Each structure stands twice: as structure tokens, then as C-alpha cells.
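Late entry, written up from scratch paper. The run itself happened at the end of the previous shift, but nothing got recorded in the book at the time, so transcribing now.
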Amino acid sequence: MNIIQSFYDNMASQYDKLFQDWEATTKEQAVILDSIFRHHGFDTSASVLDCACGIGTQAIGLAAVGYDVTGSDISEGELVEAKARAESNGVTIQFEHADFCCLDQTFDKKFDIVIAMDNALPHMLTSADLSSAIKSIVGQMADGGMFVGSIRDYDALLESKPLYSPPYIHRTSRGKRVSFQTWDWNGDTYRLVQYIIDDEDTLEISKFECDYRATRRGEMTELFKKHGCNEVIWLFPEETGFYQPIVVAKK
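Output as recorded:
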């Protein structure tokens, strides 16, 4: 098991604690994604593959508004959580264990839309690994299909290489929850440590570690074009309401 799988397997049962209200977030993000899809000519008749579905934050919201959604992830722990959450939300989603670097080993069909949100692609620690992931993703898109994904604004972050992210403080019915990250840089890669502090009936502290590469938008644009996309655009939080820059790549 690699560090990415361990990171998400270990955090699966607590991932929703990163949000003030996870259920509300699924609905809010579905509205944002649906708007992007429709702007580019798609509607709920489109088939969607969420190839980094995690616990289902985007997949469940999109299924709830009528999309035919398939979810895949490298983490078995997160897939277990996603399946339970899909059932409790009354939506039907096909879930598969798959590495987004080799999607054709799991899926025979092509999808109208493939998504990978929440900074999934920067887990690829070399340009060659990122190229393999993007080649795999574009290969799973139907002709005329579209990829939608989000990454941190690394073009800006590489200017200062911050050592931590600002904390999120969420008040709960029994106290408060604090989550924050520390970043230990080595060139353009960094070791992220995610802390979740539950200060409720008792004090509980959880810690999860993983590696990322600060991927510039220009590199990602070039790789999508190299692997068969004829149009790549970037949308920013002030345009979309989403908390990270979003790339739209059309095949």
C-alpha cells in the first residue's frame, strides 16, 4: 500500500470533519459543477466518472441532481465510506476501486465527463507521473467529452512556500473542531501533515501525512493538450464560488 492509499484509508472516517457541514457542501458543490457542465453543453443526460471520488463529496451531490455517476478511488477505506453515504443519501452510484493512472484497467466504457476535485492530481510527484495520470483520464473521456478538476493555486503558493494553511475552526453541538495543515517543502514537493483536533467532551487529536507536488497551471495545460484535449481553460474562485482554481479540458 502506498502513502496515498494509507493517507486516505486512515482519514476516511474523519474526512467529513474538514467541513462545517459535509451534507450542505455536497449540495453546494453540485450546483457549481452542474453550472460548469451546462455552460459547456452538458446536462444530466451526461455520464460522469469521478475518478478521485473519496467519500463521495462531489459524486453524491451530482447523483442527487440527476447525473449518472460512477465513482472510483485508490482508497478502499474511502470507497467503503462513500458507499455508505450514497446509500444514506438515497442515490445510486457505481463505485470501483481504481487508480486514475490506469483507468482502462477497470473501465471499458468512456464517459462524457470525468472529474477529479480537491487537489487530487498534485499527488503525482513527478511530471512523468502526472503525464501518465492525465493520459489515462483523457483516454477514459468520450470524443467531445470534458474533464473538470481542481488544484490549489500553486502558481501563487510557490512564490512564498507557506509552512502551514490557516486553521478552520468549526463549532459543534459539543464544543469545537479545529483542522489545519503544516507543509514541509523540498523543492516543488512538500510533505503535508493534516491535523484534526476535536475539543468536545474529550480532547482528541488526529494526524495524517501525505506528499504533494506544487503543480503549475501551465504544466497541466500542456499535458492535457499533449494527450488529446483541444481546449483547456482555467476558472477561478471569484468566477465559480469554488475554493480552488478549476481546470476544464475538452476533448
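The first helix runs from residue 3 to 11.
(Scratch paper discarded after transcription.)
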